[in-house]
Amino acid sequence: MSLPKINPTKTEAWKALEKHFQETKMLQMQDVFSKDPGRADRFKIEWQDFYLDYSKNKITDETLSLLINLAEEVKLKEAINQQFSGKKINETENREVLHTALRDFENTKPEVKATLQKMERFSEEIINGSHKGFTGKVITDVVNIGIGGSHLGPEMVAEALQFYRNHLKIHFIANIDGDSVAETLKKLNPETTLFIVVSKSFTTQETIANASVVKKWFLKNASEADIEKHFVAVSANVEVAKEFGISEENIFPMKDWVGGRFSLWSSVGLSICCSIGFNNFEELLKGAFEMDKHFKNEDFNKNIPVVLALLSVWYNNFFNAESEAIVAYSQYLHKLVPYLQQAVMESNGKSVDRNGNKIDYQTGTIVWGNVGSNSQHAYFQLLHQGTKLIPTDFIGFSEPLHGNSYNHNILMANFFAQTQALWEGTHAEKVENPFKFFEGNKPTNSILIKKLTPKNLGSLIAIYEHKLFVQGIIWNIFSYDQWGVELGKTVAKGTLTAMEKNNPSLVKNPSTRKLLAQFLKKSQ
Ligand code: F6P
């Protein structure tokens, strides 16, 4: 059974939405709350520690019901069931998509259990100091060497859960930029550092090159036999990891049904385990599992990922909004946006539909943002008074982790005030000066969470994973492949060969050829 392949623009619901859009697009909704006192109660979803308020959106009850009709017409429910039951919905790579199986505590796959046990044993030995380095010292630093999905998730979670961290220092080497590698190595002692080489394919140029540089650095002070105490790998390509010099017992396997950008729940999360301990890692998985059940079982109108996805489709395809911002009012979440950029844009940046046809409607949104309140002093001007429509998700927590309620109240007052100011503007006031006029009518979603715990973070990440899946289903694209990153990799290989041969003429494009000639002149 394969995913439904329905062109959304040909559905009855889409046609009805187009008509509805023409009727409602000019609505100025800034004072809708005074006309409709029940609105804030109707357009909200309360679930466990989460409270989603989506009442400050350019929608009416009819909009929501038409969007739900669209989800039904494109057979979203069937697609969700196919994903969870392990059908090969990543058709262009002929793979199942089962990151949800990594956190399924009711039907745990034996191989998932075995890997989790191995992660638990190993991370405990690193944390409690029973695993010693080659000179008998305990491990003090852990370095994750990996890029893309093998970096962004672990780093985002390790940063987000900093409050729960132990004594180990965690570092990330991702960029092939040698300066960045050197800066990290400067901080490390080979005797007390553990390197985790993370690459699902174990062929990613940046990761393998960086791991080789690090290994060379390590071997300046140690012998080949010492490698096993300091290098472990996470990969689906065990043979190549072994060829790199990592012993089989030091390889944490991953399955090809785990996509890179959805892999933090797998052995890719080993650096997270070392950093916050296995129990907290398990809590993270449990939070995602809870959200999986909500997503799978809840009606669409009370389903957080579904509602967020439908709102995003509404703005993307009817209002022609090109981007959406995400602003987390928590410094701990400062890596959330880069993480989501890969998850969302690598998944839904597609222009061919599931039938193989060129698409004539908009797909993947551009995701950007940063943390609040910093963002208010950077790009919020454009949100308030710019010409572009940028729907924005605000994420915040009711309780601070350090108990500093003075700062926390100021932080969250800004969160609430910004969503209100964006929505209401100054339209109801008499503002003589046009430069000081705020139009309002700017949509936001507010995701208010009780507290930043490993469990709640797991649920939050899973919300966005499922949201992007719903969007991909509606847009009739394959969200789980990433062919678009391959061409650049191939061209880079050819360019590197031309560099190594000191021969720019091997490059066809005249602009690139001249750039290369200039580079080679300067670098000699
Ligand atoms: O270049 C894109 C990509 O394939 C991502 O999808 C993936 O997360 C990343 O590269 C790293 O891949 P790997 O884990 O195989 O090194």
Automatic annotation (TrEMBL):
Active-site residues (renumbered): E346, H377, K489
One GO CC term on file: cytosol
Keywords assigned: Cytoplasm, Gluconeogenesis, Glycolysis, Isomerase
An example Gene Ontology biological process: glucose 6-phosphate metabolic process
Class in the EC hierarchy, top level: isomerase
Reaction(s) the record says it catalyses: alpha-D-glucose 6-phosphate = beta-D-fructose 6-phosphate
NCBIfam families reported for this sequence: PRK00179.1
Record's protein name: Glucose-6-phosphate isomerase
